[in-house]
C-alpha cells in the first residue's frame, strides 16, 4: 500500500484532522468531517484493492462516524439553529476570556 491513492488518503486525513483540531468554528469543523468522509471512502477503496481488509473495515466504520459528524455539524436543522443563536454570545465570551487572560495577575 504505497500508491498515489494511499498518499491522497493520507494527506486528506491529516488535513481533515487539522480542520477539526483547529476549532475554527462549526462550519469548518463540519467540512472537516466531509473531508474525512471522502478520505474514508478512498481508504476503503485502497484497502479493498490492496487486499488490506482491516484498513477497509476500519474506514467503513469511520465513514459512518464521520457521516454522523457531517449530520451534527452541517445538516441538523436544530443544531444549526442553536449554533446560530450562540454565535454572538460565543464571540462575547471569547473576548471576555481573552481580556481576563491578558490582565495582570
Briefly characterize the structure.
It contains 4 helices and no strands. With 105 residues, it is mostly helical.
* Mean of residue pLDDT values: 92
Strand content: under 5%
Question: First CA to last CA: what distance?
Answer: 54 Å
Overall body shape: elongated
Helix content: over 70%
What are the segments in which pLDDT stays under 50 over at least 5 consecutive residues?
none
Please compute the radius of gyration using only Cα atoms: 18 Å
Reading the helices and strands in chain order gives HHHH
Q: Largest sheet at a glance?
A: none
Individual helix count: 4
Name the structural class. mainly alpha
Count of individual beta strands = 0
Can you tell me about this structure?
The chain has a domain at 4-76. The mean pLDDT is 92. Helices cover 87% and strands 0% of the residues. Helix 1 runs antiparallel to helix 2 and helix 2 packs antiparallel against helix 3 (53-75). It is built from 4 helices and no strands.
Amino acid at each position: 500500500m504505497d500508491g498515489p491513492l494511499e498518499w491522497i488518503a493520507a494527506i486528506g486525513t491529516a488535513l481533515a484532522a487539522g480542520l477539526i483540531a483547529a476549532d475554527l468554528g462549526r462550519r469548518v469543523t463540519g467540512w472537516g468531517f466531509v473531508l474525512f468522509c471522502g478520505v474514508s471512502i478512498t481508504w476503503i477503496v485502497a484497502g479493498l484493492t490492496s487486499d488490506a481488509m482491516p484498513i477497509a473495515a476500519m474506514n467503513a466504520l469511520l465513514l459512518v462516524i464521520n457521516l454522523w459528524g457531517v449530520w451534527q455539524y452541517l445538516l441538523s436543522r436544530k443544531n444549526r439553529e442553536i449554533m446560530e443563536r450562540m454565535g454572538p454570545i460565543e464571540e462575547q465570551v471569547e473576548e471576555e476570556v481573552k481580556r481576563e487572560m491578558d490582565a495582570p495577575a
